[in-house]
Specification:
With 386 residues, this protein is mainly alpha-helical. It is built from 17 helices and 5 strands. The longest helix has 21 residues. The protein is globular and about 60 Å long.
């Protein structure tokens, strides 16, 4: 079912490490727009809605709302809610008994509790795989897609505490995300879709922000450049992976691949995603390396092993991963209860069955390798959780 809103919702999408969070915090500084922390709600829940049964039944809708609200990376998005009554408060605001109803109510609640703002947005990079479902849920949604030089995005991903372990897998991921949005760029109108580049944003931030404001129909506000003074910027800026959010916008992260990627790694990227890099408007300046099936198999296995091993490393994502694993357990428990069966799985439901399904929906490591290394779950936060 579709929900039409008086104020169009804004979705910020793009490959991870491409500047989506920067756009998120900039928009969130606008006096009329509330943008909470990353949600991962479409990737994590939408493909598996069949496991909740009929959402017209109060108990099933409550289960979905409970898991969506309490499974946020940042606890309750920092909202002043009583955990005992939070789900009741949320359900009292749903416009319809559906995933879209709960999703909308969560964002409207956040907007009300953060300056009583009339409009909301959401930044989840992998929402780029769910543009179709988002448009079905919110037909008036607007999308801002940010692209960054794939080599810079990939090396930034490699340097992070939660990304791929080698340039082959990083390039493959960048290629997948670029190709995922190509049909939508062509299908959606100029009122629904806007492309920006990370490089333009950090070199000419006011100019690009003015264009964004024109696109979404809002007045530009200079406070958008003070993103680093906001709540999310302050919290994320204290972490290694998001340190740039702790200071004013800078272009010093452009071209980092030239220092951090070897020539061989640049050639691997060119072999995997050189065509897409050129499509995105970036210059390819090395010859692609010849990659054998044996190379691919080795790099994928190493990536899987290292991802699992680093989950509980400093600033790793073991807490979030543990909750995602718990969600899978809950789905299985509902199957045993008879709420759903194999016959209920929708045909051609993306990304079920996709070779990268686990990564697309937000896991940081594959179940195979977590079990191989007997990775223990952790449900108690240590350090900063955003």
């Amino acid at each position: 079912m579709a929900i039409m809103l008086k104020e169009k919702p804004i979705f910020v999408i793009g490959n991870e490490r491409s500047g989506t969070t920067l756009v998120m915090v900039m928009l969130g500084q606008h006096s009329r727009i509330a943008v909470p922390e990353v949600g991962w709600l479409f990737p994590r829940f939408y493909p598996y809605l069949y496991t909740y049964g009929d959402l017209n039944k109060e108990e099933n809708l409550r289960t979905l709302a409970d898991e969506m609200l309490f499974g946020l990376n940042r606890h309750l998005w920092g909202m002043d809610l009583n955990p005992r009554t939070a789900v009741n408060e949320l359900l009292a605001e749903v416009k319809e008994k559906s995933f879209a109803g709960v999703y909308c109510a969560m964002h409207e609640m956040f907007a009300r509790k953060n300056g009583n703002k009339p409009r909301w947005g959401q930044k989840t990079p992998h929402n780029l795989y769910f543009v179709g479902p988002i448009k079905e849920c919110f037909p008036d949604a607007q999308f801002i897609y940010i692209v960054r030089d794939g080599r810079d995005a990939s090396v930034d991903y490699l340097e992070s505490s939660f990304g791929p372990a080698n340039i082959f897998c990083a390039a493959e991921n960048w290629k997948m995300t670029w190709n995922a949005v190509k049909p939508w760029r062509e299908k959606l109108s100029a009122e629904e879709w806007m492309d920006i580049t990370y490089e333009d944003l950090v070199r000419k931030p006011e100019e690009v922000l003015r264009k964004i404001c024109d696109f979404i129909g809002e007045e530009y506000e200079s406070t958008m450049l003070d993103f680093w003074k906001g709540d999310i910027g302050q919290k994320r800026g204290t972490t290694r992976d998001h340190k740039p959010l702790g200071h004013a916008v800078s272009d010093k992260y452009i071209g980092i691949y030239k220092e951090l990627l070897s020539i061989r790694d640049q050639r691997i990227f060119a072999a995997v995603a050189g065509k897409e890099l050129a499509e995105a408007g970036y210059q390819n300046d090395v010859e692609p390396l010849t990659i054998t099936p044996e190379d691919e198999a080795r790099w994928r296995e190493f990536d899987g092993r290292i991802r699992a091993a680093l989950l509980d490393a400093p600033e790793g994502h073991i807490l979030f991963e543990s909750y995602r694993d718990w969600l899978v357990d809950q789905r299985e428990a509902r199957r045993r209860q008879g709420i759903w069966s194999e016959a209920d799985i929708p045909k051609d439901m993306f990304p079920i069955g996709h070779s990268h399904e686990e990564l697309i929906v937000g896991f940081r490591a594959w179940k195979k390798w977590k079990e191989h290394f007997s990775i223990k779950r952790q449900y108690t936060a240590k350090g900063i959780v955003f």
